[in-house]
Amino acid sequence: xxxxxxxxxxxxxxxxxxxxxxxxxxxxxxxxxxxxxxxxxxxxxxxxxxxxxxxxxxxxxxxxxxxxxxxxxxxxxxxxxxxxxxxxxxxxxxxxxxxxxxxxxxxxxxxxxxxxxxxxxxxxxxxxxxxxxxxxxxxxxxxxxxxxxxxxxxxxxxxxxxxxxxxxxxxxxxxxxxxxxxxxxxxxxxxxxxxxxxxxxxxxxxxxxxxxxxxxxxxxxxxxxxxxxxxxxxxxxxxxxxxxxxxxxxxxxxxxxxxxxxxxxxxxxxxxxxxxxxxxxxxxxxxxxxxxxxxxxxxxxxxxxxxxxxxxxxxxxxxxxxxxxxxxxxxxxxxxxxxxxxxxxxxxxxxxxxxxxxxxxxxxxxxxxxxxxxxxxxxxxxxxxxxxxxxxxxxxxxxxxxxxxxxxxxxxxxxxxxxxxxxxxxxxxxxxxxxxxxxxxxxxxxxxxxxxxxxxxxxxxxxxxxxxxxxxxxxxxxxxxxxxxxxxxxxxxxxxxxxxxxxxxxxxxxxxxxxxxxxxxxxxxxxxxxxxxxxxxxxxxxxxxxxxxxxxxxxxxxxxxxxxxxxxxxxxxxxxxxxxxxxxxxxxxxxxxxxxxxxxxxxxxxxx
Length: 608
Description:
alpha/beta; TIM Barrel; 2 domains; 15 helices; 26 strands
């Protein structure tokens, strides 16, 4: 680690970088500064990095599926300017600004010129990629201050003067009213006087990265110590990922074409995008009302008049049409009809031996049908539940209301373990008897993984998954998709279970956990795509970097209204307008595309 010592500086930003390159093309820049200003370290010798393993582990927490071989490279710092520059605005009678170190790199391994520090204090990223940026400062002598990192959208002028730029809600306001485009303000750190800022950034070639300290009006302070780490990762969009980067069609508030059943209509739109994996529900009519009622009275009428099973649903003409499309893989939310009055009966009543056998038998019959009917196609079918932690939460709430035969949370958890086990037994039974080029897999989906990651013990990742042996695990990732630690959370979930022996023979053996749902509404951040897209990109890239099976966006058409809270949904209250919905969609109700999400998905199948 190189240290800087020198003159105390009021309200100044100072940065020093060190570079690391891994064979996975993860480039890291790391440095730290303190308030004095004199440079201690190796000015004319390559900088050795003894803690390389720790740095790479802390930044990216690479799973076993990601190669751990590394390459070191070094950098030099020939000079430093100690004077403050680019004092860009005034907070009443107090000034704020930042100071950059003039940095030139001397790379001994890897790709030279990836980062370039400019005279205006910005860092130019010379090659497109995904950046994970962490910065921290410790200061004394003042009240409050902010550490901000983000993009400089103001050319060579560095940070903007007060009142410059847009005043719309799409720009976050820095201290003193400066409009700072795309910035992420820091939060209080773990030590006295420390502030920490983290951010995922999708950087184009030529992107200018800015970090700055901003005091609140009237607050003076000194920099004692600080550091910044930048990890650059290449984007995986130069290859075809049409089978991994996909989306869901299910349960929307609208449709755009009534010439075919709702599920078929949406599947055709996804097929037309060139995507080869479809996620949907294996159930009777899952469309908007009143269309779903009309479909039940016509398209689904004959089936609904019988005592049908889930296999009968799969045999229906709607799914024969969908399974005959040019998809190679289907991820299906599939609940049996073993207990018709509550698909999640196990959370309230447990699993009797009769119900275990009935659940396993329906899963076995469905697996046998898929492996037999579609033999010769090489297709893959993944059968999963939906957001199991929400089901557990419902079971826990019934312990309070008394609407259950369970007495403890542990009994609710045991019910889920036995239910998942019965489903797995059914799938394995059919696979063991049949020879087919069709792959059928069983997955369990969790959705409160962040809580488990933080040490809370009520949820699937710690209370259920360690006690079952399923093929795959799915993560409905809304609880951590906006967090800097998302890659670590996904790895935590992947370590929480032991996959079946069968999955080790499939292409999913390297990392048998997938992202079953993620997504951000168009209305977030004032519809500012500069804040939404990097997070969406990060989720996809985290999956691809680990070779996880799928990253599945929610969804083709929207299903949440502006007035909904906590996913409580009633399409009946919708006024039919685009503005009446949050915007979890690719196609809006008026038929126009949300270009951000459409183009992001297309970016991963354009080379197919």
